[in-house]
Specification:
alpha+beta, 5-stranded antiparallel β-sheet, 5 helices, 35% strand, elongated, Impact_N_sf
Length: 243
């Protein structure tokens, strides 16, 4: 049964088989417990720090008002949605930058090239945060800042905005599936609960008598330990697959 892939972990496709036979097999029938996890190369794997909510920072520089608005995003589409939500069409400029893993974009929105979007992006990189967007709105006050002044203004308000933002650590989830005999469900669910897995689903339509498929998502850094725990606590022949 294929397992849906929500957030994937990078790595080459491979199949690694581990056989573990316990000496105390009480039954002549040897059911197979199979775990499968799907993975593909993405730039958004592992753990990252982002901001919890939308935050705002405002500063006046030589009579121009700068308002930086930062918010969490997940992809390019959500970045465009965030921009449309916070930008002010009445403002002189709505400059922005966002970062999602290794993907990033920025826009000067009419300011001299490289004086707005790029310093906003540099502020994001300096903060160490990921999957965020910063929009800096400028209301021109009549005094030109010059190239250096614009870089310092846009980069500075963006960085101050991110410094004030509440952050959180997010761990990517690996989708997994376990084909398990009915009589081992209790043992399996105990292990899943101890590892705080999410989105547990069960499917009896496996085409195998007495076998059900249990799918779930687990933190990327707990996959191997969970596999070991299932192997150690289910007294049957175990075969693990990753691909």
């Amino acid at each position: 049964m294929p397992v849906a892939n929500a957030i994937s972990i990078p790595g080459d496709r491979y199949c690694h088989k581990l056989n573990h036979r316990l000496s105390a097999l009480s039954s002549a029938r040897k059911p197979m417990v199979t775990t499968a996890s799907s993975s593909s190369a993405t730039s958004n794997a592992g753990a990252f720090t982002t901001i919890k909510e939308t935050v705002t920072f405002e500063k006046e520089i030589k009579k121009s008002k700068f308002i930086a608005i930062a918010g969490p995003i997940s992809n390019e589409q959500s970045a465009h949605s965030f921009l449309n939500q916070v930008k002010d069409p009445r403002a002189t400029h709505n400059c922005w930058a966002y970062k999602v893993g290794d993907q990033y974009r920025s826009n000067d929105d009419g300011e001299p090239s490289g004086t707005a979007g790029k310093p906003i992006h540099s502020a994001i990189v300096s903060s160490g945060l990921d999957r965020i967007m910063v929009v800096v709105i400028r209301y021109f006050g009549g005094i030109k800042l010059g190239t250096g002044g614009l870089v310092r203004a846009y980069g500075g308000v963006a960085l101050e905005c991110l410094r004030n933002a509440p952050t959180c650590l997010v761990k990517s989830k690996v989708p997994m599936g376990v084909e398990v005999p009915f009589d081992l469900l209790g043992v399996l669910y105990h292990q899943l609960q101890s590892f705080e897995v999410e989105d547990i689903k069960q499917d009896y339509d496996t085409g195998k008598d007495g076998i059900t498929m249990v799918s779930f998502k687990v933190d990327f850094d707990r996959v191997e330990k969970l596999e070991e725990a299932i192997k150690a606590n289910c007294s049957r022949e175990l075969v693990f697959y990753k691909h």
